[in-house]
Design goal:
This protein has helices spanning 11-23, 30-42, 54-64, 82-89, 109-114, 135-145, 192-201, 210-216, 234-244, 247-268, 297-306, 322-327, 334-342, 354-367, and strands at residues 49-51, 72-76, 93-97, 120-126, 148-152, 168-172, 185-189, 287-290, 343-346. With 368 residues, the protein is of the alpha/beta class. The protein has two domains: 11-244, Type I PLP-dependent aspartate aminotransferase-like (Major domain) (Aspartate Aminotransferase, domain 2); 247-367, Aspartate Aminotransferase, domain 1 (Alpha-Beta Complex).
Length: 368
């Protein structure tokens, strides 16, 4: 079975794990700090904070910005549920915004403007599939509306422009991402004070961490703020340091595979829409396509699976989940709902070659 995604892990990652185990120190320590600095440098930032997940990163960004009850945050529904969940974590209200179109399934500026109220304090843009939103337009929008601009950059690791839009950006290193630490995330923020607040909150709000107390032989500490257990460990950071050396090469391979997909689909399945027809900066995280309206998606999925091709859906819209329908009933997002009914994600990862793209596109054309 050709998988939708597959992590690239090898002997170098294995040796990095063994080195950490042999060192005798596996909780947050020097490796985590090295990873934070290397990840920041890759994205042209001065520093970053490594965390246990991208969800933790988004949560602590919103917490560090002081968002809370009575505040509203604009979010897309065409994303993983963690984006809006984190708004609820701080007691604020997520306000769901439609996408631009089938071709550009990114949050709509026009719909975002229409949904601003006196309570709107922030907007979280998502770089869906690794395709960057329009930085200048969103910065102008945020400035005009007086909003905090936050990036959910879970799909965009390795793009130097990611993390440069607004006050902070959250990244993911989950197992299906462009680079992985199995579980893990990071925050890039331009304001050192925000990074400091996030760094302290990830470790229960303590004034010093275990490694600092170990190195300095000072067992005492204070608790100065409410915090969480959102730390990254040395094992994950060691894997991350190896993956950082390869992510740019992997991203380029993803772009080449995506270009092949566009070429083959235009020849073999012209009725299929491949989003982002216009050039745009991208990490090519996933390969979404939109099926014709008269197709039966479950049958297409089953046919592809018979051909040895796994597929999935990115994403079921957040506002249609039972929990969110119960909490915020009556939300209608026509473009998002139409896209989600017909979207299908095809395999895309660095272990693939041209022969795999040929197989997938032929199988999809046959299925249709």
């Amino acid at each position: 079975m050709l998988s939708v995604s597959e992590p690239c892990l090898g002997q170098e990652e294995r040796r990095a794990l063994v080195d950490v185990i042999d060192s005798g120190w596996i909780t947050m320590g020097e490796k985590v700090r090295q990873f934070e600095q290397a990840f920041a440098a890759l994205h042209g930032a001065n520093d970053s904070v490594a965390l246990s997940s991208c969800t933790a990163a988004l949560h602590l960004i919103l917490l560090g910005l002081g968002l809370g009850p009575c505040d509203e945050v604009l979010v897309p529904a065409m994303t993983f549920a963690a984006t809006s969940n984190c708004v609820l974590y701080v007691g604020a209200k997520p306000v769901f915004v439609d996408i631009e179109s089938t071709d550009v399934p990114l949050m709509s500026l026009d719909d975002a403007a229409a949904k601003c109220t006196a309570r709107t304090k922030a907007v979280i843009i998502v770089h869906y599939a690794g395709f960057l939103a329009d930085r200048e337009k969103w910065q102008a929008f945020a400035a005009k509306q007086g909003l905090l601009l936050v990036e959910d950059a879970a799909h965009a690791s390795g793009l130097s422009e990611a993390g440069t839009f607004g006050v902070a950006a959250a990244f993911s290193f989950y197992g299906n991402k462009n680079m992985t630490t199995a579980e893990g995330g990071a925050v890039i923020a331009r304001e050192p004070g925000l990074l400091d607040r996030i760094r302290q909150a990830r470790g229960h709000g303590l004034s010093t961490g275990t490694f600092q107390r170990h190195v300095n032989a000072m067992p005492g500490y204070d608790l100065t703020t409410l915090g969480y257990n959102y730390r990254m460990d040395e094992l994950r950071a060691a894997i991350g340091l190896v993956q950082l050396k390869k992510v740019l090469e992997w991203n380029e391979h993803r772009r080449q595979l995506t270009s092949l997909y566009r070429t083959y689909l235009s020849e073999r399945a012209q009725q299929v829409v491949v989003p982002f027809s216009a050039p745009r900066k991208t990490a090519c995280h996933i390969m979404p396509v939109v099926l014709p309206r008269d197709s039966n998606r479950p049958d297409v999925i089953a046919s592809l699976r018979t051909s040895g091709v796994q597929t999935t859906i990115h994403y079921p819209p957040t506002h249609l989940f039972s929990y969110y329908q119960g909490k915020f009933p009556g939300v209608k997002l026509p473009e998002t709902e139409d896209f989600a009914r017909r979207e299908l994600t095809l395999p895309l990862h660095p272990k693939m070659q041209e022969t795999h793209v040929d197989l997938v596109t032929r199988a999809l054309a046959d299925a249709l």
